[in-house]
Design goal:
The structure holds two protein chains of two kinds.
Chain A (H helix, E strand, L loop, with lengths): L4 E12 L2 E12 L3 E5 L6 H8 L7 E6 L2 E2 L2 E4 L2 E4 L2 H8 L2 E4 L11 H11 L5 H14 L15 H13 L5 E5 L7 H16 L3 E5 L3 H7 L2 E6 L2 E6 L1 H6 L4 H10 L1
Parallel strand pairs in A: 3-10, 3-11, 8-9, 9-10
Antiparallel strand pairs in A: 1-2, 1-4, 4-5, 6-7, 11-12
Helix pairs in contact in A: 3-4, 3-5, 5-6
Chain B lengths: L33 H23 L5 H8 L2 H32 L4 H16 L2 H14 L2 E4 L8 E4 L6 H27 L2 H9 L4 H40 L3 H12 L2 H30 L16 H8 L11
Antiparallel strand pairs in B: 1-2
Helix pairs in contact in B: 2-10, 3-4, 3-6, 3-8, 3-9, 4-6, 5-6, 6-8, 7-8, 8-9, 8-10, 9-10
Classes of the chains: A alpha/beta, B mainly alpha.
Chain lengths: ~260, ~325
């Protein structure tokens, strides 16, 4: 097992009751890489993403982040489930952005961003605020600090959500269809922030339907369908010359 | 007449919006509501009639109302009622919040304790509970600490449950907390699951998630039925409980009227005091509601979304009363 990989999935499986959502998923993401996961809805993309920060428990296989088993501790050949506190410590280094933003509506944009650094990392408020303003500036939201989420557009809300995740200084960012809930004209501003982030060297796993973004930004693309990774490879190969019939069928609909 | 305005009056007003209006600005006659006014007039007339009539009716005993409203016994009972209500209410809200959170905890032991409390204290009548707490001192005259079946280490006289007031507060609070916990639970369940998920993904603990994310959002849902519950509690439970002990407003009023044979004036006296207290509670509720509805100004989302804060604040201001405003 290589310890250099940021994320390593080894035959990861997950089922909800009799529904096998993930069937033996194996893939690797190196530090600094951007992986885009594409595929039809219900293919298990989001579930896989949620397994990486242990929002969902996996049933079989092994999942490592920075060489560390996610959600479990191996002791004497057996896996022991981690305490919630230990799982939380693993999540500190993993940022997540949701399809429906999930900003805290009772807090201003700034309060949303400083919350976790203050509560989890015990960073003093003044210092957290300074950092939050920096991140908002970077996301083009310099003047929106005191706005409540309800007073921001979808694109602005999602950019606040990205800044909120970045405030914890994660090593890995997970994006769960970050532009799917946005009006078409607002998609670009969110993708721009994500592109900038990718350029800065952030390791990212992005579940998306934005093929243009995947082509331009991704180091590799994984096509998922029916709970398995059907095909994966660099964008040029996967989008330009897909090998599997299912990949071809999917791409013919979305490209 | 209103249609043909001079040309300069219909020119778009630069202060109102920057859009280039093509057609004439609409100057419409507002929709009239004659029936509203008519019905309101009739109602006011009927109320006035009732008041004038009641003022002359000897059975109301207005002189007695004036005499007893500030009677020492009555005002003292009013204070007892207020103290009973407020103290048991505060205890019940805190305990209810705790029980509701326990009910939703992933820990099955904690969950069961909360469920048991609800089952017992909501499942038996409050008066039965109050009578029970009243006689607890007879069943357990002393508190002891030690190993069972051995000579106790420490023995303390039961001083808590011999005090009628403290007993009433404890009894009322325990009962009320059961009802409160269900109100709070409904509020907690109303918060979108994505909120807990986002908070968890930010590495916040379950406790932090509850305290900083879920509970503050649930408050908006919790407060109106809590106001309802507490006012009902003040009027029915406290009055009923206090009545049997003859220490509260209703109990004392009934006591006086039993001697003077004038029930109506004393009922009015008690009602006036109750109205005063519930009005204070309602004012308090209004301000708490305002505090917890931050960020939820429904009407300001659309057009003001991209305005600068100053403009948004000005446009939001007239809507800001019942809608909670802009925080």
């Amino acid at each position: 097992m290589s310890t250099t990989a940021m994320v390593q999935a080894d035959r990861v499986s997950k089922s909800f009751g009799s529904n096998n959502v993930l069937r033996s998923i194996s893939l690797e993401v190196q530090t600094g890489e951007v992986l885009c996961v594409v595929g039809p809805s219900g293919s298990g993309k989001s579930t896989f993403l949620r397994c990486i920060n242990h929002l969902e428990k996996i049933d079989a296989g092994r999942l490592f982040v920075e060489g560390q088993l996610v959600g479990y501790r191996q002791k004497g050949g057996k896996l022991h489930e981690l305490r919630p506190k230990e799982a939380a410590i693993q999540r500190r280094d993993i940022g997540m952005v949701f399809q429906r933003f999930n900003l805290f509506p009772h807090m201003t944009a700034l309060e949303n961003i400083i919350q976790a650094p203050m509560r989890v990392k015990r960073i003093p408020k003044a210092q957290a605020t300074l950092r939050a303003r920096e991140l908002m500036e970077r996301a083009g939201l310099g003047d929106k600090a005191d706005h409540y989420p309800a007073h921001l557009s979808g694109g602005q809300q999602q950019r606040v959500a990205i800044a909120r995740a970045l405030a914890m200084d994660p090593k890995l960012m997970l994006f769960d269809e970050p532009t799917s809930a946005l009006d078409p004209e607002l998609v670009g501003e969110v993708l721009d922030v994500m592109k900038e982030l990718a350029t800065s060297g952030m390791t990212m796993i992005v579940v998306t339907h934005e093929m243009g973004f995947a082509r331009e930004v991704a180091d590799s693309i994984a096509f998922m369908d029916g709970g398995v990774v059907v095909e994966s490879g660099p964008p040029r190969e996967l989008l330009g010359n897909p090998q599997q019939e299912r990949t071809k069928a999917f791409l013919s609909k979305v490209l | 007449m209103t249609v043909s305005k001079p040309a300069e009056a219909t020119r778009p007003n630069p202060a109102s919006s920057g859009t280039e209006t093509q057609g004439d600005a609409i100057v419409a006659v507002p929709l009239r509501h004659p029936w509203r006014i008519a019905i309101a007039v009739v109602l006011v007339f009927l109320i006035a009639l009732f008041i004038v009539d009641a003022a002359q009716w000897p059975d109301y005993g207005w002189a007695d109302v004036g005499k007893y409203i500030f009677d020492r016994r009555v005002s003292q009972a009013a204070w007892v009622t207020l103290a009973l209500t407020v103290l048991s209410m505060i205890a019940a809200i805190i305990l209810g919040l705790l029980l509701a959170i326990m009910r939703l905890s992933p820990n099955p032991v904690v969950k069961s304790i909360a469920w048991l409390h609800l089952w017992i204290f909501r499942g038996t009548p409050v008066y039965v509970q109050l009578v029970f707490w009243g006689i607890v001192a007879l069943i357990y005259p002393v508190f002891t600490i030690g190993i069972p079946f051995m000579e106790p280490w420490i023995t303390v006289e039961n001083g808590v449950f011999t005090n009628l007031f403290i007993t009433a507060v404890i009894g009322l609070a325990l009962n009320e907390a059961a009802y409160m916990s269900e109100i709070v639970r409904a509020g907690l369940l109303s918060v979108d699951e994505g909120q807990e998920e986002a908070s968890t993904a930010l590495a916040m603990s379950w406790g932090q998630t509850m305290r900083y994310v879920v509970v503050p959002q649930a408050m908006k849902i919790i407060i109106p039925p809590t106001g309802n519950e507490e006012i009902f509690h003040a009027e029915v439970d406290v009055a009923g409980g206090g009545h049997s002990a003859q220490i509260d407003l209703y109990g004392v009023s009934r006591g006086i009227s039993a001697v003077t044979f004038t029930p109506v004036p004393l009922l009015i006296v008690a009602s006036i005091w109750y109205l005063l207290f519930t009005s204070v509670l309602m004012v308090g509720q209004h301000f708490i509601e305002k505090r917890f509805s931050r960020g939820t100004g429904r009407r300001q989302t659309g057009p003001t979304a991209d305005m600068d804060p100053a403009v948004a604040a000005v446009t939001a201001a007239p809507l800001g009363n019942e809608m909670g405003g802009k925080g």
